[in-house]
Design goal:
The chain is an alpha+beta fold. The protein has helices spanning about 15-30, 35-40, 50-70, 90-105, 110-125, 140-160, 170-190, 225-235, 240-245; strands at about 130, 140, 195-200, 205, 220-225, 250. Strand 1 (about 130) and strand 2 (about 140) form a beta hairpin. It is globular, with a radius of gyration of 19 Å.
């Protein structure tokens, strides 16, 4: 008898809405403290400057505002677990859009204020089951907001890496949702039950084909912290580097996830 199909993880819509607003607020406050010299500095994202990265962060939430200005799609075509795998093909368009946005808005404070006000107003007026279209496919607003936690948390980490001492905080709910969605994407990419991936305190998933673990200590275990996991899943850190730096513990012959990562670009 085949194993029962796992139920998709659910998220509290009210908590996710709040998390997105809080994380955007954290970034907005931090960007407002940056000097022109800091904004001109490099990032780990190719040749993007800190200014371009800061501009890109507004795109993460404004994508929802712009989508809500368009007609509602007929039906959803994209699940949360599928979303991480749809981002890489759009890298060129995202890069061009980011550079254009940064060039068109030299006043980042005004850009953040306008983006935040519009976003908060749209959320207040719209229910979570409203369908919205995007370049990657149609989703409910509630689901699309979960993807925004990934964008905001990942790029908050990029910003912190680019500006030593900035230390933009991570909203706990945003960090949890980002971690869980990327863990579930791994389980979708490599379905199975032979390896247990633990990312305390937010997620545990079973993945990788092979003998299924049923009780006791799993034979193949991977464990890491949320930010290291997010960096692995998005290609900011390589698997071998994380192992060498003791940021990941991996035991068992099926515990090497290097061939499965990153999950999104």
């Amino acid at each position: 008898m085949p194993p029962a199909k796992k139920r998709a993880r659910t998220y509290d819509p009210a908590k996710i809405r709040t998390a997105v607003l809080i994380q955007f607020g954290h970034v907005r406050q931090a960007v407002g403290t940056l000097s022109e010299e800091q904004l001109a500095g490099p990032t780990r994202l190719g040749d993007w400057t800190v200014r371009e990265l800061a501009a890109h962060l507004t795109m993460a939430v404004d994508a929802i505002s712009r989508a809500l200005d368009r007609d509602e799609p007929d039906k959803p075509v994209l699940t949360l677990q599928e979303w991480p795998f749809t981002t890489a093909p759009r890298a060129g368009d995202i890069d061009d859009g980011t550079r254009d946005l940064a060039a068109a808005h030299p006043d980042l404070g005004a850009l953040y204020a306008d983006t935040g006000e519009r976003f908060a107003r749209k959320l207040e007026q719209t229910s979570g089951d409203r369908l919205i279209g995007s370049r990657t496919g149609a989703m409910t607003l509630a689901d699309y907001l979960v993807t925004r936690t990934v964008e905001l948390v990942v790029h908050t980490d990029d910003l912190n890496a680019a500006v030593p001492g900035l230390d933009v905080p991570y909203d706990r709910q945003a960090l949890a949702a980002c971690t869980r969605l990327l863990a579930d994407a791994l389980a979708a990419k490599a379905p199975g039950g032979s390896t247990e991936v633990r990312i305390p305190p937010y997620a545990v998933v079973q993945c990788v084909e092979g003998p299924r673990h049923t009780r006791g200590t799993p034979p193949n275990v991977v464990e890491t912290d949320p930010l290291t996991w997010i960096r692995l899943a998005t290609g900011r850190v390589a698997w071998a580097e994380a192992i060498e730096d003791a940021k990941v513990s991996a035991s068992g012959e099926r515990a090497d996830l290097g061939g499965l990562l990153p999950l999104m670009g």
